Amino acid sequence: MVQQLIAAGDFLKLTLANPDGLAPFSFSLDNGTQVQVWDSGVICFEPEQASNDDLVLSCGIHGNETAPIEICAAIVQDILTAHLVPKVRLLVLFGNPAAINAGSREITENLNRLFSGYHSKGAGLINAERHRAKALEQYVSQFYQQLPVTSLATRNRSLYDLHTAIRGSRFEKFAVYPYLHGKPWQQAEFVFLAACDVNTVLLMQTPATTFSYYASHSHGANSFTIELGKVKPFGQNEMARFAKANDALRALIRAEPVKAAPFASSQFNIYQVYRSIIKQTQDFKLHFADDIENFTCYPPGTLLATDGDIEYRVERQGEALIFPNANVAIGQRAMLMVVPTTVTDNLG
Ligand SMILES: [Zn+2]
Predict the structure, then answer these.
(1) Catalytic residue chosen out of the listed positions 48, 227, 238, 293
(2) What is the pLDDT of residue 153?
(3) Most buried residue, 17, 134, 138, 150, by most Cβ within 10 Å?
(4) Which amino acids does the record list as binding Zn(2+) (predicted)?
């Protein structure tokens, strides 16, 4: 298995052939990089001489979001075949192998609503996604914490969870910056996002059950959910649209500076959450076209949704909608309403 993996570098293929788990194994490359396979879809690289950076890249948390899976699979392949030599400690995660095989967002439950312990709440560990969320948390903890405690203070942790959205977007690429509990937004992270061609950033104001919030809150990582475009089947992604993100991620892996202009807040469309619309009854209905783009705005007063007797109308000028989905379970978010905001040019 090791020889085949080094020769062809196709870790995604190995993962998809073993969606329910893979016994751990490890080996080293001729360039000194230590490779550890921890599980199906979980591969860790330790350079012989690593920088202070501990980088986690995740994709396929939603199984049908193929472009990030292709980007990460190619990165892993290039490392295994020694075309890309990592200078940072790197953990690459293919989030939901069974859903990738099925070509579906999820098998039974949205994996990105199960982190920060939510996998074990309510009914508990009742399905594969809940088990996977718990395991992914453990792998991230193991990755960040396996160094000697004395070195931890100086480590620079990051986790970029790569997605593509179900629908089109007024801004093709955007990032969700998890709630920081009052800690400052990081200027260097905005610069990295710009290098990825991501110029729209949504600043969250509350804790969440997402993977990126988990990494940020539980491990102090610089962490984002990054939406790189629209969902397409494998092989149908126009990879040129992802070239800047791909280049920026590879620069990070080589511990090289990313190519981007100095930070200026005016380069970005920055939004914050205004309100979250929760589905309360089976009658929840959206009052706009199914193919509406994320970040669409309507004039104040426009009817957006009804839920039994409740009407949701646009309340503020510039209020924009994202992630509308009437098919979520009762009690889950059916749509997020956001409003433009600004950050200063002097971030942390
Ligand atoms: Zn997604």
Answers:
(1) 227
(2) 67
(3) 134
(4) 62, 65, 163
